[in-house]
Amino acid sequence: QVTDIAIIVVATADDIMPQTKEAISHAQAAGVPIVFAINKIDKPTSNPDKIKEGLAQMNLLVEDWGG
User: Fold this and answer.
1) Mean pLDDT to the nearest integer, 5-30
2) pTM
């Protein structure tokens, strides 16, 4: 096994992009724990809950949502 953990950075301004979904798929296939880092939350238009909802739709719950 090449990696022990996957850290995936998601910008609140960009939503969950196809590349993010691909990275999640690879991490799940490898069976490694995934840590999501939500960045750019300091921008006035940021909406971290939108990212969390998108992850929840993929059956990935963030820690403060019980994951």
Assistant:
1) 93
2) 0.83
